[in-house]
Amino acid sequence: MIVKQASHPSPEEMTLVTVMGALSDPIRVGLVRILADGRERGWGELRAPIAKSTLSHHLRVLRDAGLTRTRQEGTRCFVELRHHDLNARFPGLLDAVLEAAHNDDVGAHVTVAGDPQPT
Amino acid sequence: MIVKQASHPSPEEMTLVTVMGALSDPIRVGLVRILADGRERGWGELRAPIAKSTLSHHLRVLRDAGLTRTRQEGTRCFVELRHHDLNARFPGLLDAVLEAAHNDDVGAHVTVAGDPQPT
DNA sequence: TTCGTTGTTCGTGAAACATCGAACAAGGTA
DNA sequence: TACCTTGTTCGATGTTTCACGAACAACGAA
């Protein structure tokens, strides 16, 4: 609704502590994992066992921390990971988190519509 | 004290989300930075602008997450970073965090007695 | 214009967290 | 034994976070 187009922090505005806080929730880690392939995803594709207002909240935390970028297109919006910005700002951090999250299968209950459910 | 000797999680018991949560506070990041040189530090050496009960709390969070190891010796105790365990469990993560924390000077208000104050 | 879709915002409540001062427990020291 | 030092634990308090349903706003379609 563009009521308030989300604020995307510039790389300099990102802080380590905020990013770590954003990644201290399994649902948010799951969302980041889904976006890790670089593809932009529609809001509606995302599946998580929470109410949509809660999902909106988590997407906002990720966006405010600088982890994701949100784009509006008509009435729907798309999210993508700010892979490049993150690597520039915190070299190696995102990859280390993604590897760890993959090994432990963190946030596996977050999926994408159309994708085969794990297990 | 020693009333309950702290539980140190084994590497397998460590979780990414808990570790990230532990590192989402500037004081705790400052403590980790101090311990990053591998030296064991006495509790009494640590200087932070908080009450001692609060410092005790933060050290417990770090310990419970598996980031540090605490050793008792008589009435005083010593802390050290579990650098090796962390690298084995979450490869690259700690180094990426330490580099980012250093670049941004996160947790600079946490110091060690005897060390020259930054600035 | 009237719906239906889509996602944000609001109001609320429960849980977690950071912080403090005070009390406590274990060792060392006088 | 009496005292001091060292850290932990115990409430108490205020803030933040997570979660939900309901209401709302913008857009597209009928």
Main attributes?
homodimer; 119 residues; alpha+beta; Arc Repressor Mutant, subunit A; 3-stranded antiparallel β-sheet; two-stranded antiparallel ribbon; 5 helices; 5 strands; 15% strand; DNA-binding
Task: Produce a short descriptive summary.
2 copies of one chain form a homodimer. Chain A has 119 residues and is an alpha+beta fold. Chain A has 5 helices and 5 strands.
Fold and architecture overview:
The structure is a homodimer of 119-residue chains. A 3-stranded antiparallel sheet of chain A has the order 1-4-3, with helices on one face. A two-stranded antiparallel ribbon of chain A has the order 2-5. Chain A is built from 5 helices and 5 strands. In chain A, a hairpin with a 2-residue loop joins β3 and β4. Chain A has helices at 16-22, 26-35, 52-65, 83-89, 93-104; strands at residues 41-42, 46-47, 68-73, 76-81, 111-112. The mean pLDDT of chain A is 92. By secondary structure, chain A is of the alpha+beta class. The N and C termini of chain A lie far apart (36 Å). Chain A has a single domain (13-101), classed as Winged helix-like DNA-binding domain superfamily/Winged helix DNA-binding domain (Arc Repressor Mutant, subunit A, Orthogonal Bundle), CATH 1.10.10. Chain A is globular, with a radius of gyration of 14 Å. The interface between A and B is medium-sized, with 24 and 24 residues. Chains A, B: Keywords: DNA-binding, Transcription, Transcription regulation. Chains A, B: Pfam families: HTH_20. Chains A, B: This is DNA-binding transcriptional regulator, ArsR family. Chains A, B: Residues 8-101 form the HTH arsR-type domain. Chains A, B: InterPro entries: ArsR-like_HTH, HTH_ArsR_DNA-bd_dom, HTH_MetalResp_TranReg, WH-like_DNA-bd_sf, WH_DNA-bd_sf.
